[in-house]
Fold:
Amino acid sequence: MHALRIESSRKLTPIVIAVLVASWVIFNSQRSVTAQERPANFVIILADDLGYGDCGFTGSQQVRTPHIDALAQDGIVCKQGYVSAPVCAPSRAGLLTGRNQPTFGFDNNLPPKPLQQFDPDHSGLPINVKTIADRLSDLGYVNGIIGKWHLGEADHFHPLKRGFHEFWGYLGGGHDYFKADPDSKQNYLRPILCNYKQPQAITYLTDDKGDECVDFIRRHKAEPFFLYASFNAPHGPLQATEKDLDLYSHIENKSRRTYCAMIHRLDQNVGRIVEELKKNDLYQDTMVVFLSDNGGPIKRFKDGSVAGIRSNAPFRGSKGTLLEGGIHVPFVISMPGKLQGGTAFKKPVSSLDLTPTFVNLAGGSIKAADKLDGVDLLPFLQGRKEMAADRELKWRFTISGSLREGDWKLIRLPDRLPMLYDLRHDEAELNDLADAHPNRVREMLRRFGDWDVSLPHPQFLEGDRYRRTQIDLYDTQYDLIQPR
Structure:
């Protein structure tokens, strides 16, 4: 509000002048208070294909993650944190919308090229589905994505048309860590895209992403922001710097050594993001969420053996399965100004919960018409409300489906009878209790089936070869002990 103009006051009565002056004083005092009440900022740090057992705070005796562990100590560790799909693209679709992605036809991974029977214009996140960035943009936030998009490469799917104001990264599902080649036809060598500057040459991609995340925080520290730090580490290709490889030279398996080195570099950049928030006095008021997009993949050979590169211990399963090893991920929520650090939340939470949590904390509201499948976690994390003991979570992914109700979890596959597990006593899902609880199986299967048949047809399908691969992963022997 501008100061009162003296010349205009000559035409006003003393009473009117007094009222205007009082109003001006009250307005400015209120504005001063408001300026001190910073709006919440939001940062999602997403790892890619990170094994559950490959962080210090999840029990690793081999991989050192001091910065991620420090974030966990400052925040709340969600002991039963889930993503909505066991592979990259559909998991990210759920994460960024707050909607279980099969409800809008995104229950497959994106194929490199759409199959001929599908319209390529629909090979991505449907344009009529709002993202978390759309919702925060409406609330005055500046939104940036650094890194991997993987939600459609056609122009109408571009992140800058999905609520994000800044993008530094690539549209596909992965990238080489050391180079880009504009003349190459390989997806992982395509140039980095950026709308706010000429992208620098790649040094080591995880560090370059860290640079951009730090720069984003510096440039937008005076306004409310949402930073989606979408790392591709430790997703393949397995590539690490020599310096980081030296830290794990004692590991004989070369692939495992490289994978651990890649996690080390990811951890260093998580530390850089947190440090920049602290430098700018933003850490207390920023909700930082760290998680992986799915469990670690397991390479299965024709003789039935598996490659021990990633560890999802103590869980059975891997990327591509609805066993715990595919969807139960490292999951931390930190906001020292609002959440008590150094604690654990033991009820199931989902990546679908982040959209309503962020929007409500930002001063917005979620309506029934938004059809979100998540809940606002803040009242539960603060202890103001008790989460229902029988909370229900659902998954549908290509050939598989699963329903969790409280501690009970049902898995449905096409080549066998439904499987039932009691996760409270069997987190590794070793003891199928379906025969002992036929009524529970029947009821859970009916509820899941009612939901299943209400879903739309998929907008696209991945290659059919993955169906056999996914089935075989349920019969694989997994190491349930973390490497030392």
Remarks:
- The chain has 13 helices and 17 strands.
- Residues 1-12, 16-36 have pLDDT under 50 and may be disordered.
